[in-house]
Amino acid sequence: MSAAPHLRSQAEAEAARLPPLLAHAEHLAGTVLLGEHGRRRAGMGDDFWQYRPVQPGDSLRHIDWRRSAKSDAQFVRQREWQVAQSVMMWVDTAPSMLFASDKETPQKADRARLLALALAILLIRNGERVGLTGTDLPPRRGELQIMRLAEVFLRDDADGERPDYGTPESRAMLPHARAVFISDFMGDFDAVQVALTKAADRGVVGACLQVLDPAEEEFPYKGRAVFESMGGTVSHDTKKADDLKVRYLERLAERQAALQDLCRTTGWLYGHHSTGQSAQTALLWLHQALERRA
């Protein structure tokens, strides 16, 4: 019984975090004005999309005679493509994602969750199924799925020891689905290669978004500095931090080039985002990346 007050206060704290995340994600999704044109393309469906001139091979029954009577040409009435697809997400929650170089900059994990939830809102409200890789949350439609995703993103994974860097989760990837991986991708590169190769073998295509803090991109440190991983497993003390800058930036460029090559080989798209930049830009890139991979 003594644990009940603690559990209740913890539950209330988690519940209090949910509305702000949802509100922020809703607002961010609203800045990407999809309207009626978000995922519209010709194909199966009931909603009118556009007229186009008749082409060789078109059936006479597809010609819209009323529209054609208004000109000398004949037109076909195209309808909107409405076959919902599945989008699988993996959002890195490892300790490395908790880094923020100052109070004005969000943690990488917070930005990753925000982008993933805002993207899910856009996709689900356009009729698509969205879920998480692994077995926790299979892809579904509807507003309830948005709530489920928000709850998972806010889940506290602090219990137990975890590696400093995240490993992409590639289990339960639906064949020929699309996927989004959001991470700093600063850990074991081989694990990323295995995940994307497995996904490609199942016909899954998608986008990797690398989220970094401005300090991780610029390395502004000088003089005496102690560098520690967020999980506390790695520590490096130096008296001349500025001497490390060139080597660090070279290693970062090598990692980003390797990620680009891997994505190109597996048919994915690679993008990078700084938490010092607008989240809207990253969300727009993610949505367009999925459009190109549809």
Order of helices and strands: HEHEEHEHEHEHEEHEH
Number of strands: 9
- The CATH topology label of the largest domain is Rossmann fold
Q: What topology, given as strand order, has the largest sheet? A: 4-3-5-6-9
**Assigned CATH architecture of the largest domain:** 3-Layer(aba) Sandwich
Tell me roughly what share of residues is in helical segments.
Answer: 25-40%
The CATH class of the largest domain is Alpha Beta
Largest sheet: 5 strands, parallel
Separation of termini? 52 Å
- Global shape: elongated
Q: Return residue spans where pLDDT drops below 50 for at least 5 consecutive residues.
A: 34-46, 80-84
Count of helical regions? 8
- Beta fraction: 15-25%
Radius of gyration from CA coordinates: 23 Å
Backbone structural class: alpha/beta
Number of domains: 2
Determine the mean pLDDT: 83
What does this structure look like?
- Pfam families: DUF58.
- It comes from Shimia sagamensis.
- This is DUF58 domain-containing protein.
- By secondary structure, this protein is an alpha/beta fold.
- The chain folds into 2 domains: 13-36 and 84-293, Rossmann fold (3-Layer(aba) Sandwich), CATH 3.40.50; 48-79, no CATH class.
- It is 39% helix and 17% strand.
- The chain has helices spanning 4-31, 65-68, 108-124, 143-153, 189-201, 214-218, 245-266, 279-293; strands at residues 48-53, 75-79, 86-91, 129-132, 178-183, 205-212, 225-228, 235-238, 269-274.
- The protein has a 5-stranded parallel β-sheet with strand order 4-3-5-6-9.
- The chain is elongated and about 80 Å long.
- The N and C termini lie far apart (52 Å).
- Residues 34-46 and 80-84 have low confidence and may be disordered.
